Amino acid sequence: MSERPDIGDMIPDIALETTDGGQIKPSDFAGKKLVLFFYPKDATPGCTTENKDFSALKAEFDAAGTALLGVSKDPPAKHLKFIEKQELTAPLASDTPVDGPEGIAEALGIWVEKNMYGRKYMGMERTTYLVGPDGKIAQVWRKVKVKGHAQAVLEAAQAL
Prior knowledge:
Elements: E1 16-18, E2 23-24, E3 33-38, H1 45-56, H2 58-63, E4 66-72, H3 76-86, E5 92-94, H4 104-108, E6 111-116, E7 119-124, E8 127-131, E9 137-141, H5 149-159
Parallel strand pairs: 3-4, 4-5
Antiparallel strand pairs: 1-2, 1-5, 3-8, 6-7, 8-9
């Protein structure tokens, strides 16, 4: 995909794998606000902090009529261990292509080439989408810095 979906565009409606073996799509949240937060990998320091921050604010997101869904390429079994170990309350889903050749991260243009210590590899660009009840992207945070991020997203959700 050449153009990355942005504010005002519909969020791609691509199925994600849930930790209970089912599937979930952004359209399943129609009529409700949705925060889709994409992170690189379970159980890494920044990703753990981000997930714990969103989990700590889950009740406030619920009160704002906003669902949370954390997404990475990790498999559901790894998500379950991560949820259990960190006592996370924000649900997680796996972006493993379920009904097509590419997952939602590819459709959003956030599965990108990264470079660490001279080694190139494909990875998730830490990105958060606030999706309105109509399925349109209301706000995007790209290349997220974790500190204070969940609170900023909550404030945006409350204002939407």
